[in-house]
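Hi everyone, sorry if this is the wrong subforum. Our group has a chain we'd like a structural model of before ordering constructs, and none of us has done structure prediction before. Sequence below.
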Amino acid sequence: MKPGLIIRLLVLALLVAFIVTPESFTWVFQPLTRNGQPAIYTQNSLLNLTLSHLTIVAIATIASTLLAVGLAILVTRPFGAEFLPLSRSLANIGQTFPPVAVLALAVPVLGFGTAPTLVALFLYGLLPIFENALTGLTTLPPAVTEAARGVGMTDRQRLLDVELPLATPVILAGIRLSVVISVATATIGSTVAASTLGEVIIAGLLSNNIAFIAQGGLVVGVMAVLIYDALSALERALMQRTGQRRAR
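Answer:
Right subforum, don't worry. Here is the predicted structure as C-alpha cells:
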C-alpha cells in the first residue's frame, strides 16, 4: 500500500472518529477556548450536520450534472449547435452570481431552509461540469468517431457507447471541481437555516469561540480534500481504462 493512501485512510479514520465522537477530541480544541467556553459544539449532532451537509451537496451536484451534461450533449449535436452561446451564457451566469445573492433572492420565494441552498449550489456547480462535458465531447479522437460511423452505429449508439464513455474522465474532472466548491460553499446555507456544518462555524462567530470555528472549518476542509482525492483516483482509473480500450 502506498504511503499517500495510508495517510489518507488515517485522516479519514480520524475524521469519522471526530464526527461520531467529538467529545473524545476535547483535549485538542480545549486550548482554543477561553473564559470557560465549551470546547466541543453540542447544540446539534455533528454526525447529523455532516450527513445533511453531504446530502445537500450530493443533490445539488446530481442536478447540476444532469442539466450541464444534457446541455453539452444538446449543443454538440448538429440540431443544437446554435444553442451553444446561450447555454454557455446561462452556465456562466450561474457561476458568476454570488451564492449569497442567490440565497437572498431565493429566500422570499422558497422560504428559509434547505431549498435556497440547493438552488445556490445547483447554479454554482453548472459551469465547470458544462465546460468539461463540452470539452470531452468535442475533443474525441476523430479516428474513433469515424470508425463508429463506419461500422454503422446510429447517432444514439455513438453517443451512449462511444462518445460518453470516452468523455467520462473529462466530465468527472468537472464534477470533481463542482463538488469541492459545493462542499465549501454549502456552509453559507446555515445563514438561511439549512442544516449544514456552517451552523458550527456561525455558532463560533456569534459566541467568539475559536474552537467551534476550527471544528466546522476542519471538518469541511478535510472532507473537501478527501472527496477531491477520491474523485481524482476514480478519474485516473477511468483514464487508464479508456487508454486500454483505445490501445485495443
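For your construct planning: The radius of gyration is 22 Å. The mean pLDDT is 91.
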